[in-house]
Write a structure and sequence with these properties.
Elements: H1 2-7, E1 45-49, E2 54-58, H2 62-65, E3 71-75, E4 77-79, E5 83-88, E6 93-103, E7 106-112, E8 122-125, E9 134-140, E10 147-152, H3 159-166, E11 192-195, H4 207-215, E12 219-225, H5 229-232, E13 248-252, H6 254-265, E14 270-273, H7 275-288, E15 294-298, E16 313-317, H8 324-333, H9 335-347, E17 358-361, H10 366-374
Helix pairs in contact: 8-9
């Protein structure tokens, strides 16, 4: 079993239309964009999809929907208070969204308004700390249109250590009327600070549900991918094969690799909790030639026709039209089927996007699908 999974990749058949951006569009009623999370977290609805069927459940039923010996791989990144407000020396108001740390206390950020912030400009931030926080613009980043900022913080400290005094947790722009508390936009297993957005598939887990999964013999492992602009950057080219993903920092530990290999050797299934975990595991496997411990950046772009190396199943939320995330999920179950499932979810009034409901995509027998396709 292990030999097959590590040496042979799997891929669904793809069609020429799968490469077109316009083929990933769908209409969503505005009222189905979730503005607040489910309470409790695991009361969210769950659309369960296998090779040929789908059914409707609640997330707390997950232990009954998986098998003993399955491995859930989760992203333990933690969202930082990445939205900052400040002023230029002239008094003009400035909004900053941190994206990623490039060097110590040096961050790539999106800045509004950015046109009036050339290299050398200074921003003074407003916060509750007794010490000031300033940043100097070092350069403009052509890839994102952002700015490279050097932050001046007290000696011996990092920006992340003081962000809770100055920043706010940034919610996605489609969440415009939310009463959610900051901790509701963190997973219960968040540990490693650095993300500017939550790995939202993990928001549905509670400590009690994790205990129930463990008692059922369903194991967990962790990776870290600090969610940044790469996850949300829009695809703007009709031929999606020419889209370039922005790199995001990933760590896949030796312990997690060992857990995956043990799961495969014993016939268990590797199920990613979220598209960020997919990018972490598959990115590590692509970078190394096979799954190995990995620490670095991945700019892997997954769309139909992708040769799967590690991930077999997926828990994910419902994604925006024409997004790279929609393309990733299409690579696992097929674009046409996925869009049909989205129409089913809309008809059943599922809640969409970051605070919305979830989908469980159970492992597909690729060889069977390929045999049927050849017929």
């Amino acid at each position: 079993m292990l030999l097959f999974k590590t040496m042979f990749s799997r891929s669904l058949p793809s069609q020429p239309q799968d490469r077109l951006l316009s083929a990933y569009d769908y209409d969503l009623p505005q009222e189905l964009i979730a503005q607040n999370p489910a309470v409790p977290r695991d009361s969210a609805r769950l659309l369960v999809v296998d090779a040929t069927h789908h059914s409707h459940h609640r997330f707390f039923e997950l232990p009954q929907l998986l098998q003993p010996g399955d491995l859930l791989v989760m992203n333990n990144t933690k969202v930082i208070p990445a939205r900052l407000y400040g002023r230029k020396s002239s008094g003009a108001f400035i909004e900053v969204l941190l994206l990623e740390e490039r060097q110590h206390n040096q961050w790539l950020a999106l800045v509004k308004p950015g046109k009036r912030l050339p290299p050398g400009a200074t921003i003074v931030f407003e916060g509750s700390a007794s010490y000031p926080l300033n940043a100097t613009v070092l350069a403009t980043d052509a890839a994102t249109g952002g700015r490279l900022l050097q932050f001046d913080v007290p000696q011996g400290m990092s920006l992340i250590q003081v962000l809770d005094k100055y920043g706010q947790v940034p919610l996605p722009p489609y969440i415009t009327d939310s009463q959610a508390a900051g901790e509701q936009y963190q997973t219960v297993y968040a540990e490693q600070p650095g993300a500017v957005a939550a790995p939202t598939a993990g928001l549905h887990f509670t400590p009690e549900l994790l205990t129930h999964l463990q008692n059922k013999g369903i194991n967990t492992a962790f990776v870290t991918l600090h969610v940044g602009v790469g996850t949300f950057r829009p695809v703007e080219v009709e031929d999606i094969t020419t889209h370039k993903m922005h790199g995001e920092w990933v760590e896949v530990s030796a312990d997690t690799v060992a857990q995956i290999q043990e799961t495969q050797a014993q016939g268990g299934r590797v199920i990613a909790v979220g598209t960020t975990v997919v990018r972490s595991l598959e990115g590590a496997a692509v970078s190394c030639g096979q799954l190995q411990p990995f620490c670095g950046k991945t700019n892997l772009f997954i769309y139909p026709g992708y040769q799967w190396r590690v991930v077999e199943g997926l828990i994910t939320n419902f994604h925006l039209p024409k997004s790279s995330l929609l393309m990733l999920v299409s690579a696992l179950i097929g674009r046409q089927r996925l869009l049909a499932l989205y129409q089913e979810a809309i008809a059943h009034r599922y809640r969409f996007y970051s605070f919305g409901d979830a989908v469980l995509l159970l492992p597909v027998d690729f060889s069977t699908i390929e045999r049927k396709d050849r017929k």
